[in-house]
Amino acid sequence: MMGQEATRVVVDGAEFSVRQNGNRAEAIRTNTMAFPAIGAIVIRAEQAMEQATGCEVDTDTLRGDQSVMRADLIC
User: Fold this and answer.
1) What is the DSSP code (8-state) at residue 60?
2) What is the pTM of this model?
3) Which residues have C-beta within 8 Å of that of residue 10, sequence separation ≥ 6?
């Protein structure tokens, strides 16, 4: 996602820097959280990507960890 402009989004206390390149999105969590559960972060990252891009996330393509999530978009 190098060279793509980032959009800052906050979802339920989790702060993300979201970038879009075509039909792909990346959400990087930018705040600290004490031992965040991956399940909670996945949901928040998905919401952050949708808010930032205006597209729906293809949930079957969500991949990553508590810091960085990537997914395909349906626009």
Assistant:
1) G
2) 0.93
3) 16
